[in-house]
Amino acid sequence: MPVRQSHIQISVTARTFLSRAPSGDHAMRARKILRLTGPDTRDFLQGLITNDITKIDQGLVYAALLTPQGKYIADFFLAADGDDVLLDADGEQADALLKRLTMYRLRAKVEITETDLQIKRGTGPAPAGALTDPRHADLGWRLIGPEAGEDGSDWEALHVAHCIPRSGIELGPDSYILEAGFETLNGVDFRKGCYVGQEVTARMKHKTELRKGLRQVEITGQAPVGSDILAGDKVVGTVFSQTGGRAIAYLRFDRAKGEMSAGEAQINWMPAPS
């Protein structure tokens, strides 16, 4: 995989993007590829990210960086490039992510730079060098290289069908990764040991039953992304990405019952049998 470069771009909060994120936007948001190099690179990442960096030798790794309180900062993919690691991040988060990683670096022998590399993705036959998207088999492959591109797949439908959250839409600074489904998406490893935010994440996994989280719902009509979901006069959740009569919603499970609405749209959710 190609060459090294430097510097970065601006970040906006997930909530800012949420207010302008169009429903049904199928295009991939801009990505930034960071390169981490140096003898301490893997140990450095292992102490920070939610997934096990040693999996990188078998393929693409999906992971997140959390606050010490266990809340979401950013999600990204990691790929090996020889002894280096390439970090594929949302372009809106790249500047803040670079600053955060640099803050944590301290005396670790790691250099972090931006590259000019791009992302191609698709669900058809994978080109040479492409890696399988670890979140779900139906999301196909991703290729880091000199050009960006997509193969025309209906990404909005795929994300909604498999309840796969995206930064700036379903994922924001108040998100907890287990409520966002990261365990199902192969984005967290509970055997790897300590990382930033691990204590809260482990407690949510082992000591509590999730009472809120992202779920796929049926929707009749459309509502602006970020609209409250009401059951009667009570707010029971928020609706996000929508397509083909289905949507991703953040729900409070004990209250999301009966007839629900979001703006002019009607919402229906049937919990899976326990």
Low-confidence stretches: 1-25
The overall pLDDT, averaged over residues, is: 90
Could you say which structural class the secondary elements and strand pairing correspond to?
Answer: alpha+beta
Largest sheet: 6 strands, antiparallel
Roughly how many Å is the radius of gyration?
19 Å
Please summarize what this structure is:
The chain has 274 residues and is α+β, with helices and mostly antiparallel strands.
Explain what you see.
This protein is of the alpha+beta class and 274 residues long. The protein has 2 domains: 14-206, Probable tRNA modification gtpase trme, domain 1 (Gyrase A, domain 2); 214-268, no CATH class. Helices cover 15% and strands 31% of the residues. The chain has helices at 14-20, 41-46, 94-105, 155-161, 198-206, and strands spanning 31-37, 61-66, 72-81, 84-90, 111-114, 118-122, 131-132, 141-145, 149-150, 212-220, 227-231, 234-243, 246-252, 260-262, 265-268. The longest helix has 12 residues, at 94-105.
